[in-house]
Amino acid sequence: MLEHGGRLRRAAQQYNVAEADWLDLSTGINPDGWPVPNMPGVIWQGLPQDDDELNAAAQAYYGTMKLLAVPGSQAAIQALPMLRTPVRVALVAPSYAEHAHAWQRNGHQVIGVPDAEISQAATTAQVVVIINPNNPTGKLFSVDELLEIHARLAARGGWLVVDEAFVDATPEHSLASACPRPGLIVLRSLGKFFGLAGARVGFVLAEETVLQSLNELLGPWTIAAPSRHVATLALRDTVWQDATRKVLLPASQRLANLLGTHGLPPSGGCALFQWLCCADAASVHEQLTRQGILTRLFDAPHSLRFGLPRDKAQWARLAEVLKAIQSADYTDSRRFSGGLR
Predict the structure, then answer these.
(1) How many CB atoms sit inside 10 A of residue 224's CB?
(2) Which CATH class is domain 41-236?
(3) Spatial separation of the C-alpha atoms in residues 225 and 218, rounded to whole Å
(4) Does pTM top 0.90 for this prediction?
């Protein structure tokens, strides 16, 4: 199993800090997610129904007529490599490690390249996987750039897989409305923007043949009836969606400014997180963790990802701890100069 954010119970046990006392910034999940209402009890009693209103709600939200609901985009990440015989797969590096892991596990030849080289890599690869905006760097590819890569791959029977887990706050950068078309596969999730990670609901947008094969592979009843109900309501709540988009981008900029004020200028980010690349990332992570603040630590490259605090108290707590760390006697001032980015 690969390392992920959100392992709060493990951190609580390791540092002897109660779970309720932690400020968890490790996941990149919207801390003020869609407000789930009380659910009718009957929803828990029946099997999930694929012909309910979820697909229609998702089609309207994403602007496409061809999609498949899946139990979180992670399920699609693991299953898609099974639909092709072993080929050469190019991915942006660094990026969400589950993609490379899934393709390698199924016998594919995987190469990781910097984001500036992914277009060139598409000339020799049969599959290209891009996270947009990228996790953890926040790199954002333009629609035109992605469609150009797709056209070259599709002409050779290849695939462009675009993971849009973090794009909901900036939907103008999504390829959802360009689907379906041969060789284009777009992954979406309700976990990040909607803050419904526990519901395990995602979607695959692709041509019919891919969706049929994926559906047969995953089998029936992949999403629980309560999750289908909640997802349908959230996808239709355009008032909440519009209001949330107006809040997230300024909050992310506020986070970037806060980190920079305390000598930790971000190297990238998007609406739901900021990414700090520095040689002493592990030390910063450890100091924050000892104060009950959990961030996501990466080894290659050495870096940290900070999610958004939820409220005034959490913002104040983060600022206080960052200030204390910056001024502590045991901290070498060079560590926070920005020179190690």
Answers:
(1) 17
(2) alpha beta
(3) 16
(4) yes
